[in-house]
């Protein structure tokens, strides 16, 4: 890692808690520079604006999360254990940091306004990875999709929709982790092959 890369990483690491604390609109470049321990002038040498910095942070977070998701799905264990781990990673890296903010909705909206292409590409990649995992599990008769009359792609789509719904429900007092685990248990029961039938 070059000195420039280390400086960028330092800035992005410092920026996330500032955005979580103040929200996107109220966060200033001065706040981020102070948190990163650098001058505003030095910050502007790396990023021209708060928007550019936020977008770079989104790219970094999505790339990092998808690398970890891929590793979880390629790991050991049955398909559902691996998918549950992958979804937990995705949520821990991309949803939970902002979910704890009183400005969570504003931060998610800012992300869609400034980095929709990054977010949508990451969601497409996650959907593809989940579909491939479900397809392999169905081919290995680890799961049975016949009772649901659903394809691996349809089921992966439902999983993604549930993740979105659960993300928003946590602001009403629900737990992101607990609700996701409950959904995955329901799904596991629905597609587990029934012996003797």
Automatic annotation (TrEMBL):
Residues 5-65 form the HTH tetR-type domain. Residues 28-47 bind DNA. Keywords: DNA-binding, Transcription, Transcription regulation. It comes from the Bacteria. Gene3D superfamilies: Tetracycline Repressor, domain 2. The keyword Transcription applies. InterPro entries: Homeodomain-like_sf (IPR009057), HTH-type_TetR-like_transc_reg (IPR050109), HTH_TetR (IPR001647). This is AcrR family transcriptional regulator.
């Amino acid at each position: 890692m070059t000195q420039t890369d280390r400086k960028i990483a330092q800035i992005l690491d410092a920026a996330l808690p500032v955005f979580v604390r103040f929200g996107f609109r109220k966060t200033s470049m001065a706040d981020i520079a102070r948190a990163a321990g650098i001058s505003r002038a030095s910050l502007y040498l790396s990023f021209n604006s708060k928007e550019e910095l936020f977008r770079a942070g989104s790219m970094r977070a999505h790339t990092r999360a998808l690398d970890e998701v891929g590793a979880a799905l390629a790991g050991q264990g049955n398909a559902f254990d691996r998918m549950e781990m992958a979804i937990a990673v995705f949520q821990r890296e991309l949803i939970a940091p902002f979910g704890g903010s009183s400005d969570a909705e504003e931060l998610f909206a800012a992300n869609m306004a400034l980095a929709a292409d990054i977010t949508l590409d990451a969601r497409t990649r996650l959907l593809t990875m989940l579909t491939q995992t479900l397809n392999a599990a169905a081919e290995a008769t680890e799961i049975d999709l016949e009772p649901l009359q659903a394809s691996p792609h349809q089921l992966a789509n439902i999983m993604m929709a549930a993740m979105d719904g659960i993300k928003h429900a946590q602001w009403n007092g629900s737990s992101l982790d607990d609700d996701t685990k409950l959904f995955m248990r329901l799904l596991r029961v629905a597609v587990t092959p029934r012996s003797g039938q």
